[in-house]
Amino acid sequence: MTVMEQRGAYRPTPPPAWQPRTDPAPLLPDALPHRVLGTRAADRVDPDLLRRLYAELVRGRRYNTQATALTKQGRLAVYPSSNGQEACEVAAALVLEERDWLFPSYRDTLAAVARGLDPVQALTLLRGDRHTGYDPYEHRVAPLCTPLATQLPHAVGLAHAARLKGDDVVALALVGDGGTSEGDFHEALNFAAVWQAPVVFLVQNNGFAISVPLAKQTAAPSLAHKAVGYGMPGRLVDGNDAVAVHEVLGEAIAHARAGLGPTLVEAVTYRMEAHTNADDDKRYREDTEVEAWRAHDPIALMEHALTERGLLDEDGVRAVREDAEAMAADLRERMNQDPVLDPMDLFAHVYARPTANLLEQEAQLRAELDAEARHHDDEHDDEYGGEATDARSHEPEGNTR
Amino acid sequence: MTTVAVKPATMAQALGRALRDAMTDDPTVHVMGEDVGTLGGVFRVTDGLAKEFGEDRVTDTPLAEAGILGTAVGMAMYGLRPVVEMQFDAFAYPAFEQLISHVAKMRNRTRGAMPLPLTVRVPYGGGIGGVEHHSDSSEAYYMATPGLHVVTPATVADAYGLLREAIASDDPVVFLEPKRLYWSKDSWNPDEPQAVEPIGRAVVRRRGRSATLITYGPSVPVCLEAADAARAEGWDLEVVDLRSLVPFDDETVAASVRRTGRAVVVHESGGYGGPGGEIAARVTERCFHHLEAPVLRVAGFDIPYPPPMLERHHLPGVDRILDAVARLQWEAQS
Ligand SMILES: Cc1ncc(C[n+]2csc(CCOP(=O)(O)OP(=O)(O)O)c2C)c(N)n1
């Protein structure tokens, strides 16, 4: 007898009771961003931490202004400044243990530098001489990632692998507000939660994805709310308050390290400069909005907190600024030297063992360069009466822009 | 007759004009993508459109390429003609699933019941000093997918005409915009925009007798320059601009090669598995008895696109083309 035939007698049984998962307890973020500076809680913060964060913030700001200046001098092809977001960058770098990993997005040069990377090596992508100018294993910083949100699944996989190996390692992955719309963001969060991977996602919500404001990016009450649907806690933090970001990230990292799974942290901040030096932000925002955020500057907030507690005086400020100035001067000087590039590098790392096809192309380029060098030397001979110098095939490249 | 001084337009402006005219003529045309509205696109191709046509027709989408193309599929299903912008070549990859599995196959899998008239604009190629992931030549991936038209202009006039054709097409078109030609200008008159021939016709950009350079998009100006330089060596080169990679204009290409007896295919995407292999094979099949030498290819190296400071060593330039032309003296050499 089929179900249809016995229709009168058929009584569907209700499905087994559905149990909503309630652990870990409340996943919803606080209604307001977590804040420490300017509240009583600031009194209890370790003075050393305050001083370290302050010094890094000042260095970070100086790094941003120096890098922007380098774009104007044609020494950097492009720079996406994190001016205004230094608190997120610095806290992300300082909160990690040495064994942990940082997965930066393309705007996060500063976090990489604050973690210990050579400032010049960190800029090679943006200068245009190398895609990734540093060894990711040296400071455990993944390559600065240009395609948005694609680094997030990598962070989840690395954290998962570390746990499988029994290592006590956490991955911290950075993404922008725009990047949260990409499929990769959602897939990464889901994997992380299902695997309970020791990973923390930090969204730097700086208000814009190039020209598109947050309201056109998401209809969610906050980006931190997105955590709930995947089954992980969401936290909301004032992204200009370096102490608060450090605190919230620290808790999330401890949570992950304890085997309790991932957290999504949204830091609410603001991008003070255009998307990059090539962008015109007048097209999509008002100066008044930018100015309103200037009053909530991360460095001023920190300076105020330190001064109030008597942890900083004029000499202290001067010392920190001088240190930042020295860093900037060194960066400027080294960036003003033409990078020495070998065109044969094009073929150097395509495969572990170069294919015959590539070897052939390598030979072709070598021949071209040799011919160019001979040509060069001939001209040189003509001009200077035969004072041919070195072979030019490995001649340093000038700046191409 | 009065002659009015014509302000030359850039290729980017011509593309914008094509979008505007298409939207004016056909209310079902919609433009969508990242930053195409308020900002007018990162290359300013859509500048002013949002103001003129409103947000419902010129839409700043969330930052999600799969979502952009996937929703465009649904809009096309319901009778609209979406024109989507992928911000850069390498950022179109998240949308490949939609493109390959649905955009390219919908007509076929529904036996013609659900065609998808949509256009995917993709700025592509190198030469502008872009950092990693901003200079890919992705045409081979698109060419390898049956169901898509693949078009790429090399002149300002073609940018306008071909985009109008693409939008009017009842099949999906991948419209590849050579980034480094965005700011180029030629004699195109923005006050009298003209449509060109239907998609699928190549054009001879320069007449010549001794060999044919077969090329498209960003390499067209390079080939024309090479043809000029080759005169000094006694070569009179013909330059064929394909304009459309799918469909392919066998007729124009074969006719040219039969006339000249020699051919070099030039493009900046990698040679191995690249468009040049397909083109050389087609030419050989059709012109074997007319060929004085094998069809040669001048392409980018088979490497990930290099950092900008090295890109000049990667991109096929005039010298590399002239080298190949010299190798066309096959008998003397072998
Ligand atoms: C997959 C992908 N699509 C598009 C782009 C082009 N793009 C570069 S940055 C950017 C905006 C990013 O905004 P957001 O994620 O908020 O980060 P922010 O720039 O604010 O730091 C876009 C659209 C890209 N890099 N990757």
H/E element order of chain B: HEHEHEHHEHEHEEEHEEHEHEHHH
The CATH topology name of the largest domain in chain A reads: Rossmann fold
Largest interface: A-B, 47 and 39 residues
Radius of gyration of chain B using CA atoms only: 20 Å
Supply the number of helical segments of chain A: 13
Radius of gyration of chain A: 26 Å
What structural class do you assign from the helix and strand content of chain B?
A: alpha/beta
Range of helix content of chain B: 25-40%
User: Whole-number average pLDDT of chain B?
Assistant: 95
Largest beta-sheet details of chain A: 5 strands, parallel
What is the CA-CA span between the terminal residues of chain A?
81 Å
C-alpha termini separation of chain B = 59 Å
Q: Secondary-structure element order of chain A, as H and E?
A: HHEHHHHEHEEEHEHEHHHH
Shape assignment of chain B: globular
Instruction: Tell me what the CATH architecture of the largest domain in chain A is.
Output: 3-Layer(aba) Sandwich
Q: Using DSSP, what is the number of strands of chain B?
A: 12
Structural class of chain A: alpha/beta
Considering the protein shown, what is the CATH homologous superfamily of the largest domain in chain A? Thiamin diphosphate (ThDP)-binding fold, Pyr/PP domains
